[in-house]
């Protein structure tokens, strides 16, 4: 069955990389030989190679450097309300297979769920949606109907307040799209509870991508009593727990996990007072508030202060925001990542652990590891890698789409060279 709404097509250049055939869902302006027809921005177009062979169907935005985004590789598939219902239901079924016990996760992850430009985070019976591209914006009604059919939520919030929309010529807005949306929700992750500010929190309110990585720190949180000369007879129920520094702690997800897993004490540092306020409430909610110190400070400055004071920790956790949001920012980002990892290593006691991550796409995995190694050389440390991973199972990755491989997460044992 042909799609009656497709009246134009993009003809790709002969001398191009075969990115589309390798699974990449974007077509760049530089790959286009010509556009046949007169499509309106947001219209559906067929994408063909230089010989006219059909490759994919997607939506077009001639004003963007990404001139088209792929919705289907099936020439007979109609892009209508039923299409969005099928795709969203398939995305949710994927989560049900790999995350069967969770009611809170990333339910639709844009290109990786074959719905480019659409993000849906599920917080129990509340959905938070981001529409990042013009082609999805013009199909909002079909998307809304599909979300209501698949999830039957209490409410849906549109968090279209992300700067990338401006590149698509779209306005920034936050609005209740359907039903009722409370200012906050409480979710469960790894058996713990967290308060999420869905209406004003960063991005959609919570970072689901680190779920599995937060669980990965459990083995680091106990087994330190002898190191510190403590015994059960001391009367401290957490005598064997780790002393932990959590820098860039945001709303305390790593800190609360560390404490729940047996850490004796955590210092949690972030520059955002509102984020720390939520962190305090999360600690109280999970019954660990008496073992955490919240510090409002620039993490770079605070790490230097701790180093000057001669402090040492069994575990140092570094979970900074993206330092490189563009290729032009990469050089400065490398300096930033090297700086915090160098300080983190110096603050880690010999035989302790550095937990470090980067969510900057432009900081490729090999470059991130190289930067950490450079920091280790300068800090006179030897690192033993004990864990390496990326984003969680609700953030699948399509091979051939390097932009989807953004999160790097590592746990290193830190030993001194002198």
Automatic annotation (TrEMBL):
<comment type="similarity">
    <text>Belongs to the methyltransferase superfamily. RlmI family.</text>
</comment>
<dbReference type="GO" id="GO:0008168">
    <property type="term" value="F:methyltransferase activity"/>
</dbReference>
<dbReference type="InterPro" id="IPR041532">
    <property type="entry name" value="RlmI-like_PUA"/>
</dbReference>
<dbReference type="Pfam" id="PF17785">
    <property type="entry name" value="PUA_3"/>
</dbReference>
<dbReference type="InterPro" id="IPR036974">
    <property type="entry name" value="PUA_sf"/>
</dbReference>
<dbReference type="GO" id="GO:0005737">
    <property type="term" value="C:cytoplasm"/>
</dbReference>
<dbReference type="GO" id="GO:0006364">
    <property type="term" value="P:rRNA processing"/>
</dbReference>
<keyword id="KW-0808">Transferase</keyword>
<dbReference type="InterPro" id="IPR002478">
    <property type="entry name" value="PUA"/>
</dbReference>
<dbReference type="InterPro" id="IPR029063">
    <property type="entry name" value="SAM-dependent_MTases_sf"/>
</dbReference>
<keyword id="KW-0963">Cytoplasm</keyword>
<dbReference type="InterPro" id="IPR015947">
    <property type="entry name" value="PUA-like_sf"/>
</dbReference>
<dbReference type="GO" id="GO:0032259">
    <property type="term" value="P:methylation"/>
</dbReference>
<keyword id="KW-0489">Methyltransferase</keyword>
<dbReference type="GO" id="GO:0003723">
    <property type="term" value="F:RNA binding"/>
</dbReference>
<feature type="domain" description="PUA">
    <location>
        <begin position="8"/>
        <end position="93"/>
    </location>
</feature>
<dbReference type="InterPro" id="IPR019614">
    <property type="entry name" value="SAM-dep_methyl-trfase"/>
</dbReference>
<dbReference type="Pfam" id="PF10672">
    <property type="entry name" value="Methyltrans_SAM"/>
</dbReference>
<keyword id="KW-0694">RNA-binding</keyword>
<protein>
    <submittedName>
        <fullName>SAM-dependent methyltransferase</fullName>
    </submittedName>
</protein>
<keyword id="KW-0949">S-adenosyl-L-methionine</keyword>
<keyword id="KW-0698">rRNA processing</keyword>
């Amino acid at each position: 069955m042909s799609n009656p709404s497709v009246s134009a097509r993009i003809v790709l250049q002969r001398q191009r990389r075969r990115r589309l055939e390798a699974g990449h869902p974007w077509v760049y302006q530089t790959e286009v030989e010509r556009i046949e027809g007169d499509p309106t921005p947001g219209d559906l177009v067929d994408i063909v190679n230089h010989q006219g062979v059909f490759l994919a169907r997607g939506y077009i935005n001639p004003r963007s450097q990404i001139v088209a985004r792929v919705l289907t590789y099936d020439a007979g598939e109609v892009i209508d309300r039923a299409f969005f219902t099928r795709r969203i239901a398939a995305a949710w079924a994927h989560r049900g297979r790999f995350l069967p016990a969770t009611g809170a996760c990333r339910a639709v992850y844009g290109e990786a769920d074959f719905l480019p430009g659409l993000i849906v985070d599920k917080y129990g019976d509340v959905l938070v949606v981001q529409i990042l591209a013009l082609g999805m914006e013009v199909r909002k009604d079909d998307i809304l109907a599909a979300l209501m059919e698949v999830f039957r939520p209490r409410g849906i919030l549109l968090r279209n307040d992300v700067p990338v929309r401006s590149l698509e010529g779209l306005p920034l807005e936050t609005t209740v799209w359907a039903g009722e949306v409370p200012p906050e929700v409480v979710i469960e992750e790894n058996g713990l509870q967290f308060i999420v500010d869905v209406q004003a929190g960063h991005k959609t309110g919570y970072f689901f991508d680190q779920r599995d990585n937060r669980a990965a720190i459990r083995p680091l949180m106990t087994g330190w009593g002898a190191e510190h000369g403590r015994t059960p007879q001391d009367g401290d129920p957490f005598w064997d727990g780790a002393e932990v520094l959590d820098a860039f702690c945001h709303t305390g997800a790593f800190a609360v996990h560390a404490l729940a897993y047996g850490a004796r004490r955590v210092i949690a540092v972030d520059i955002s007072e509102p984020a720390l306020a939520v962190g305090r409430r999360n600690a109280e909610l999970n019954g660990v508030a008496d073992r955490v110190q919240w510090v409002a400070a620039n993490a770079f400055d605070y790490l230097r202060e701790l180093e000057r004071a001669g402090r040492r920790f069994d575990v140092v956790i570094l979970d900074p925001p993206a330092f490189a949001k563009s290729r032009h920012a990469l050089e400065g980002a490398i300096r930033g990542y090297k700086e915090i990892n160098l300080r983190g290593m110096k603050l880690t006691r010999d035989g302790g652990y550095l937990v470090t991550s980067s969510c900057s796409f432009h900081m490729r995995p090999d470059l991130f590891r190289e930067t950490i190694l450079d920091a280790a050389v300068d800090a006179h440390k030897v690192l033993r890698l004990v864990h390496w991973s990326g984003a969680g199972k609700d953030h699948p990755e399509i091979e051939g789409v390097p932009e989807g491989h953004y999160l790097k997460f590592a746990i290193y044992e830190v030993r001194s060279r002198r």
